[in-house]
Task: structure prediction
Amino acid sequence: MMENAKKIATDVVINASKERVWEALFTRFGEASIYNPNLEGSHFTKGSIGEVGCERQCSLDSKMFVKERIVKADPLKKFTVDIFGGNMPMVKKMMVDLEINPIGNSQTRVILSADFNAKPAFMGSLMKGSMKKKFTDMLIGLKYHLETGNRVSKKTYKPIYKQYQQLQLNQSF
Result:
């Protein structure tokens, strides 16, 4: 628990089993750039793939990056990521929980909740909206990737988002 942290929460329903969702988010932790439209690249940097303690580096663009580590996990249910390094401006500290709740055999709700401290602190309130949008875009990208098998990138995301807005509740891409 972080003191005076700003909280963000967002979720999406994906038409895929909890096992497939877990594999994409946890087991293939270093491969986030295949579904996250906010990233130009990502790769494992340290630890054992698919285990607590493994680390990745995510490039937001040619200059900005973050370093992330899985700090705890309840297999097929929930895991916590500590954003512990990088050069993202105004983010002092961030912890992200990803919860995976099956809705039947082939549908899964992914709930992302993040706590963060900004530097300077007053920027936290101003950053909440844009941070939530970025996390929501990541989850929509994950849904698209798992339902279609296609990669998501900054360039391909706009039509994917428009298509997502047209979907009925729990409908697939």
Observations:
- The domain at 6-166 is CATH 3.30.530.20 (Alpha-D-Glucose-1,6-Bisphosphate; Chain A, domain 4).
